[in-house]
Amino acid sequence: PLLLLKRFKNKPILQSFIIFGVYIIVTPTIFNWYLLWMIPFIVYYRNIAFLILSGTCMLSYHGLIGYYDNGTWSKMPILIWVSYLPFYIILIYEIYKFFKTQKVNTV
Fold first, then answer.
1. Alpha carbon distance 18, 35 (integer Å)
2. pTM exceeds 0.85, yes or no
3. Burial class (CB in 10 A: 0-12, 13-18, 19+), 5
């Protein structure tokens, strides 16, 4: 993915978006404040996938309910699917659409 940066060498904002986006995708733990880094890029590039992820990341706080009640941290697998599946589906579509328009613009 970082080889993409060479392709967009005259677009530093897009390069930053790619760097932060790849970091969020490959990091094993996403803290909700990591998604704050993406908000300026969401506004600039109108990226729906990261907008959805920044909204659905609030589902991770569901584990606090059990923690406050009985002191045990529990994850509900369905909430993980609800958080990440729409993000990845829309992200794949947006990447496809982006490269399709890039190919049309270069021809």
1. 13
2. no
3. middle
